[in-house]
Amino acid sequence: MPRPEDIPPAPAPITGDDDAVLVEDIATPDEDSDVRHFKFRVSRKLSRRIDQYLVDRVPHLSRAGVQRLIDDGLVTVDGRTTKASYKLKAGETVTMVAPPEQVNEIVPEDIPLDIVYEDEHFLALNKQADLIIHPARGRWHGTLVNGLAHYGSKWSNVNGAWRPGILHRLDRNTTGIMLVAKSDEAHWRIARQFENRTIQKTYIAVCHGVPELLSDVINMPIGKDRYVREKQAVRKEENGGKPAVTRYEVQEILNPGQALPGSTGQSFTLTQSSHPSDRNFRAPPARFSFVKLWPKTGRTHQLRVHMTAVGHPMLGDTMYGGRIFEAEGFRFERQALHAFEISFVHPATLQTMTLSAPLPPDIRLLLERLESKESQNVSPAGT
Fold this sequence. Notes:
Layout: E1 20-26, E2 36-42, H1 50-57, H2 63-71, E3 75-77, E4 80-81, E5 93-98, E6 115-118, E7 122-127, H3 144-151, E8 175-181, H4 184-196, E9 200-208, E10 215-219, E11 222-224, E12 232-234, E13 245-254, E14 269-271, E15 288-295, H5 302-309, E16 324-327, E17 330-332, E18 337-345, E19 352-356, H6 361-370, E20 376-377
Parallel strand pairs: 8-18
Antiparallel strand pairs: 1-2, 2-5, 3-4, 3-5, 6-7, 7-8, 9-15, 9-18, 10-13, 11-12, 13-15, 13-20, 14-16, 16-17, 18-19
Helix pairs in contact: 1-2
């Protein structure tokens, strides 16, 4: 098992030298992708080729790896694709999308994996709740990556041994469909679709209350919360927010009866958690809605933040204003959010695929307790 001291620190900033200045180095420009974005501004004409130059600037990349990035159009000069033999001129700006530095091996652990689809190029799984994707913040075991290391040994190495095959992430307590690459080629082909936002993801959620507009687009930038490190918040772009767009559509209005937060004698109760920030939110409505969501961007906690911003936090999402649900011995205390479906182009056949993950048992039980004779199906035909 790797020790904390074995985990490499965050990459040190790449400083400028006599031929370039690092303008930008971002580890996760879009939270659904495992890449870093680099931007260099060249101060004088260079005698060496651009592939040699980038290897010197980003030492963890091989020359062959840089050439592949160039061939895939992930390196541009002043916004235009280039060739590996190109020699940079003074004043030009180079941008590059590259994988992060590789790290140590992971310890295999027998963690149950619900495989939805698998072939020689990738697999899709239905992630369970309370499962972190890869080691982070002092947690080095019990992650999906540990389970993948136990399940098989053929995974892409684009992100290094610490994150084998990982193409995108789901929050610890969000369930649902995920893709994992088995080869570097499959990884890059699918990752490029995430980067270009051509992959369509469909989520389903149970939210407090019923939005006034049963179908709408939420366009609010998201950035780090000013007060709580683990949280995100709607922030103006000039204050650090990044563009974030979500489309939602209410499928069913759920009317299980009335209850007050912490009340007794009702068919169910809604209570706060012990999370300090939970006290800052007003009590949500006792009605609920079953909602489909389509994120157009992939910011951290995007769907959770957006639904809270419009006054309808997800049930159980106490970090963002939701409440814990209890009824007849049943307790639901995580965000009621599930990645239901994903559509993408197969990395080898180039055919469009749509894969889905069935609802987990706890959300099915939750819906059973929320549905009543007064519930209304409001989804348009065909959705």
